[in-house]
Amino acid sequence: MNKKRMLRAFAAGLIIFAAYLAYLHGSNMSYYASFIVYICLFLIAGQGWNLLGGYIGEISFGHAVFFGIGAYTLALPSGYGIDIPIPVTLVLSMLISGLFALAISYPLLRIRGLNFLVGTFGLGVVFLNVFKSSKQLFANKGVFVPFVSPQVLYPLIVGVTIITVIFVTYLVNSNLGLSFRAVRDVPEAAEMIGINLYKTKTQALVIGAMITSLAGFLYALYSMHVSPNATFDPAISNDILLGSYIGGCGTVLGPVIGGAVIIIIQETARSAITITGGHNLVLGIMLVVVMMTMKEGIWVTIQKLVDKLGKKKGSSSGKKLPKEKTEVIR
Amino acid sequence: MNFAGFIQSLLGGIGTGTVYALLGLSCSLILGRLQICSVMHGDLALLAGYLCYQAYTVLHISPFITVIILLPVFFGIGYFIQDVFMKPFMKLETWKGRYQGQVMVSWGLGMSIMALEYIIFSGSYKTLNVPYRNSTIHIGAVTIPVVHIISFALVIGLLIVVEVALKKTSLGIKIRACSDDSVSAKLTGIPYDKICAITFGISSALVAVAGLAYTLMSQLNPSEGFDLTFLGWAAVILGTMGNLKGAVTAGILMGIVQALTIYLWIPNLAIAAIYIVLIIILVVKPRGLFYWKKRERGSAA
Predict the structure, then answer these.
(1) Which fold has domain A2-296?
(2) Which of A42, A169, A241, B80 has the fewest CB atoms lying closer than 10 Å?
(3) Which domains occur in chain B, in start order?
(4) Is A126 at the interface with chain B, CB within 8 A?
(5) How many beta-carbon pairs below 8 A join chains A and B?
């Protein structure tokens, strides 16, 4: 099962990579190239969100904070004229966001549920306003980031996406990932066998924050300019969250599919409804419909449908025993 | 720092805090009591505000009359939302899918309301220009806007009405039973789903009043709805889940924090300061300001 899932993730990564290369080599369609880059970035960030939001079930409304920390760790030194090699800033950004996540886990994760939800939303507001209003952090003007040639950057982004998906697949099937799911599904039993609830949640938050900051870092490299409105905007948190939920949270490929769906739908809605904010109508209705009809997201529903179809074929050829067995296991 | 200015900003803070208190009151009723998680309350409040605005500018109806008309309408909307969209998730346990699902569904609904407001009323800021909007009362060196007094009276009045109704009426007793122990409540024959829907309706009606208070004090913009919801939730958490008086007190405290930040520190960080204070308080008291370990069950009704 593990190998199968790994293979699936790898195949998905390869497909994205192939599609991307096809577009890049096809013609001067830079629009589609940037489109795929955005999908990749949201995908990485969504994987980071999914560790805590999907596997443990604590919804975060403020993952843009970690996204922004990743972007600003790269941008601030270059804004002040300090030259730090890019790999060092990469490690630094992951470290800083991890430590920050550790710090906020104490007030927000000790009690189940709402503290974390409201607290993360609040942190998003705090960071956006602090970065917007302080001149030491370059306020609304933003910072320019050192240039990296696209020949290096594009493969880097796609490569990091694939590595992230594989890493998360591995993590989720490891002992730690199993304890995540135990904390979500049967917290009492998990506590009984010696899983520390608060510690497990904190681990998920810290690892997720590091992955999300990676997305922010790559975004800064890609856009070459970092500003509060582009990195700490609540819209980013919302998109990360929506992608994971619509795709199916608590699965590896859910955020992958959800992120792509969200970005494509948002772009088409934006071009179709020209009134400011009108595109939210499409998103909102889609969210309601998805949540009402398939509570576990698109990907899980598709998986179940495929399973059902497979079973029907199996039963028609006379294999009745295995069918009942699988049902019991599920 | 002059003393009169400090008192002035303090009173102003209490005035703006009443909006958060009203939001907190309505959120506390469903979120703290029945653990129905809806993030659309801010959008509902804005919707009520826009309807008041439209009624006043087009038909010249006083916003207070509009709100009295809106109370049953919003009760109906709330009942409908709970009955259709939130009920499927009520079977699940609170932290195992119920709150996630309800947050998502209500978020989608709130987003749709926001988008409709954008489409109908456009994204520009709207101001409800009632004649008494800028009139004030002078007490010594301090001036108090009439709007703040109205809003404060509304909060206290509604708090008393809701508290008494929860304690004395049979509906209130049923709501308390459902919130304390839903299984036993169902066993004694209380229609749990119906009570939940009614409570959601009451909470929606209360949020219409919050929308009126908000409209009288600040400008309307569709994007504010989501922020308003979270300010209401912050009041609920700060004042301990399920404690109505606590939510109202916390809402007013948040207003004071906001006003003092504007007066003493950086005006741009007014809303941010509320959340900073919230997180600092959660470090010390993770269950909110009004939580004591030996609190009897239901004593904060």
Answers:
(1) ABC transporter involved in vitamin B12 uptake, BtuC (1.10.3470)
(2) B80
(3) 8-284 (1.10.3470)
(4) yes
(5) 146
